[in-house]
Specification:
The protein folds into 2 domains: 125 residues, 3-Layer(aba) Sandwich (Rossmann fold), CATH 3.40.50; 137 residues, Sandwich (Tumour Suppressor Smad4). It contains 7 helices and 18 strands. Strand 4, helix 4 and strand 5 form a beta-alpha-beta unit. The chain is elongated.
Length: 288
């Protein structure tokens, strides 16, 4: 079996990124695996040239990403639709989307070269902002879309519809629309439930709602979710996977639907989602 063509992308701001990139290069070379490097990652090695993330997505069989969840989310947005399986090696803290820690890089190399990894398909969503009958913004996301006041700590009113039917008018600090993958991110901090990746749903979680009976709502991922600022709300902002701010005006409609494609996360064989939860959330099963 031929080894896959590997694209290597590192968060170059991490303290041990350069050391790990060099170690991975040596390990892949020992196994006669071909590796291409992202531009900033290549600069850590000095003697090699690099490619854009989008070019790596188009050319490579699998992408190895060194960093945390934020690095993987940034890579997803930089791929510009050229989606390939992503194997994450954690250089961050929580790392729900990563497969192994940096100390286990040799195990990761063995798994990647032998193609013994297991793919976990993750739902993506498409988001568009309609203004005056025109689409003024379009984004794709893995974790969540967040509509909030931004820096100001004031309540905003957001009318939310599911498939055209009014769900409610939230009066809250903001609203999170999350995929199952995103259920362990901001939504979890806001009191939302944890969903398994194959749940087939979206999660709508208000941020500090004024009405205490407003709680997370789970809807089918076949649903179209519309969110509209009410009245003359000012300074309302949208973020997708925490990547950038988009200003939302009165009269705008934010629409969210399931994307036609998925992101495949490459995981070590035999590792279940529940084992990941136990490790990352430090669930020991006891109170001690």
């Amino acid at each position: 079996m031929l080894a896959p063509l590997i694209g290597l992308i590192a968060h170059t701001g991490k303290a041990n990124a350069a050391t790990l990139v060099r170690s991975l290069r040596e390990e892949f070379a020992r196994r006669s695996a071909l590796v291409r490097f992202e531009q900033k990652t290549a600069e850590l090695l000095k003697e090699v040239t690099g490619d854009t993330v989008s070019d790596l997505g188009a050319a490579c069989d699998i992408l190895v990403v060194l960093g945390g969840d934020g690095t993987i989310l940034q890579v997803l947005h930089d791929l510009a639709g050229n989606l390939k399986p992503v194997f994450g090696i954690n250089l961050g803290t929580m790392g729900f989307l990563t497969s192994v820690g940096s100390a286990n890089y040799a195990q990761a190399v063995d798994c990647i070269v032998s193609r013994s990894y297991v793919l976990s398909p993750r739902t993506l969503f498409e988001l568009e902002v309609e203004r005056g009958g025109e689409i003024v913004a379009f984004r794709m996301g893995l974790n969540d879309a967040v509509i909030s006041r931004g820096a100001l700590s004031r309540l905003i009113r957001l009318q939310t519809r599911i498939g055209g039917a009014v769900l409610t008018e939230y009066n809250a600090d903001g609203l999170i629309i999350a995929t199952p993958t995103g259920s362990t991110a901001y939504s979890l901090s806001a009191g939302g439930p944890i969903l398994t990746p194959d749940s087939g749903v979206f999660l709508i979680t208000p941020i500090c709602p004024h009405v205490l009976t407003n709680r997370s709502v789970i809807v089918s991922d076949e649903s179209m979710i519309d969110v509209r600022p009410c009245r003359d709300e000012q300074d309302v902002f949208l973020t997708v996977d925490g990547q950038e701010l988009v200003r939302i005006r009165t009269g705008d409609i934010v629409r969210i639907r399931k994307a036609p494609n998925v992101l495949s996360l490459a995981m070590l064989p035999g590792m279940s989602f529940f084992e990941v939860l136990q490790q990352k959330l430090k669930w020991s099963g006891t109170a001690i």
